[in-house]
Amino acid sequence: MERHFDAELKELHKGILRIGALAQEAIVKSVEALTRRDKTLAQAVIVNDNNIDELELEIDEKCIDLIACYQPMAGDLRFITTGMKVNAELERIADLAVDISQRVLEIADKPLLKPLIDIPKLSIVTQKMLRDAIDSFINKDMALAKKVVLCDTEADQLRNRVQDELINDYMSRDASTATRAVPLLLIARHLERICDHTTNIAEDVIYMIEGKVVKHHPEKLKNGDKCV
Description:
Blueprint: H1 2-36, H2 39-70, H3 74-107, H4 118-139, H5 142-171, H6 178-210
Helix pairs in contact: 1-2, 1-3, 1-4, 2-3, 3-6, 4-5, 4-6, 5-6
């Protein structure tokens, strides 16, 4: 029975990696659709979300079956229950990539309000945080999970920079720019929210490994930890 359980855990690993890869791909394509003004690519992200939704349900069912059939204890139980949380966060992240794509469809046929500088930077931070969060879960890497939590501040700062520029330099000076500025503002917020969900994953990983609750309390991390 133990061999069967180990094999099932490996399948859970693969499932989390798969939905994580799809979520990352959705982010990349949604931002690429923005930079290229590509409505076809944006629409593809929206359509593919159904596959991610179905995979989330499959992984959730697998986690429940593992608990019901094998009654795991201690570390294995923590890993499975954390896997359920990670799975849900990744599905929400993919939903936010859909939101980005929908905003792209709103502005793809309009002249670009300004050169895209900080949104692509925020996208890079977002993608790295997500990749590191997934790796920290799969490899039970405490240091990597802590780094993800601490990097959320950088995402907040970039979101704020986009928001301040669009509101103060454009919308407040010329109300007619709102139809092009608001979708960009929302895209920045969607990316920042992805970072929040990614931080949730990292916080759950820290609890899984160490039993320490750091959700909403990053100050509980050691002084030597930093985002690099």
